[in-house]
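Risk register update: the risk that structure generation would not scale has been downgraded. Supporting records follow, first protein first.
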Amino acid sequence: MKIADLMTRDVQACTIHDSLNAAARIMWDHDCGCAPVVDMHGKLVGIVTDRDISMAAYTQGVPLDAIPVERVMSPKVISCARGDDLETAHRLMRTHEIHRLPVVDTRGRPIGILSLSDVINHWHGGREAEQAVEIAATFLAIRRRRERTAAASSNGDGTLHDAKKAPKKKRPRAPKPSADLL
């Protein structure tokens, strides 16, 4: 199966000069978790996710309108072509531990996005057991990344910091009623 058969075609991109508010609006309006970032020629130069936006909002303490996409986007983008096989997409997702792949044309312009959800939503055919194994292996590869970064948090500039939490304070419990009162 080819990526063109599965990808989401109506992809909305933002530019490096757009604010995070504009990127968040794209994600809200199009019910997606990321937006490709393009330069003035429409060429893919990065990707920004809903997590990038929420971490920047949390760590930078300024309105999303004041934060340019370029500051928090991932500039290293792994992409694929519409003619690539689904096996190629699985390999890229596993190797780079990602669950979204921008699909670009021959000039590097985004023409779609393939997500692991797209793969699952189109799961059918006579190779169901084989496809289930591929999807499970891809999920496990992505999960490994999350396990490694579970104790770290991003400050929006790509730097990871230890996120050692203070011990939770125990809330005092109300005393149990006396047996005499029951």
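Supporting record for the second protein:
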Amino acid sequence: MLTSTIRALDDDTEDNFHRNATSGGIDFTQYFGDKNYIFQLRTAFSNIQGNENAIARTQRSAIHNFERPDADYVEYDPPAPHLAVSGVT
């Protein structure tokens, strides 16, 4: 599955919305040998782009938890022009 949003923003809206956002993922399962073996792939990604204020609002949002004390693998980066995330299980 893949989804994308592209916006034409003006000075009044560019701080509140991302210029574009894309996300997608794959959920694939294949059985082999009379269902004795399985190959499974699950992956997801997202990428957003916008001005510094819009990206900073996303990073500071409680939904994304970039400032959690136990999250030593992510950092708040105020001047970031985009934010990308991916994962595989």
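The beta strands are 2-6, 20-32, 37-49, 82-88. On this basis the risk owner (M.S.) recommends closing the item.
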